[in-house]
Amino acid sequence: MWKAYSAGYIRKNKTGNRFIMIISFLASMLLSLVSGLFYNLWVDQVNQTIAATGNSEVEMTPAIIAYIVVFSVASIALIMMIHHAFAATMTNRIHQLGILKSVGATRRQIRSALTNEVVVLSLPAIVIGNIVGIGLAWLFMAFIITSTADLRDYTLIFVYSPIVFLGSFLFSVLTALISAWIPAKKLSRITPLEAIRYGNEPVIKKV
Question: Quick one: which H or E segment has residue 4?
Fold first, then answer.
């Protein structure tokens, strides 16, 4: 029943689906871009340290601290942005969820169905966003390499690691899951009477 219900909603709600996919794409692209750029800066810093001291150990430098801060702030901002996007699409289904509850659906089933829908819609967008983010990171590094060629006495090249891609991908998926789980949890508490009372009005803050 849940697969049929979710599949039917996904087919019918094309506008909301595009919105979720676009937000997921932009979020994963930004995280991938930031990760790719700072990974290259870190590798360059390691190479310079090896050339200067023969030691590959890199201390907590301002660049690494900046990466942690930027990545954390971007992640929090993206979670909030995606959360509001998901909440806006989910609250349009309050009446439907109330009907499902009236026929025996549990909170866990509703929460699981809503979250699974977001995962199905977000995964392709996240994969594409990560790939595009890598391409943008390469373009930025190509610009930096070209513009600083006369200021360096060593060769700087673009580098990337599958671990960085995997980390960006998993973190993007985690971001989408957290963003979807919060409104899904709240909406799973909607009672049939509340659904009838509020109809299609956004009541997520009243739950």
Answer: helix 2-12
Q: How far, CA to CA in Å, does 187 sit from each of 7, 53, 136?
A: 19, 58, 37
CB atoms within 10 A of CB 171: 20
pLDDT tens string, the chain, 207 residues long: the values are 556 666 666 667 677 678 778 888 888 888 888 888 888 888 887 777 777 776 666 566 676 677 777 777 777 776 777 677 766 766 666 767 677 777 776 777 777 777 777 788 888 999 999 999 999 999 998 998 888 877 777 777 888 889 989 988 988 888 888 877 877 777 777 666 655 555 544 444 443
Write down the residue that tokens 């995964």 correspond to.
123
Signed CA dihedral, 70, 72, 74, 77: sign only: negative
Model pTM above 0.90: no
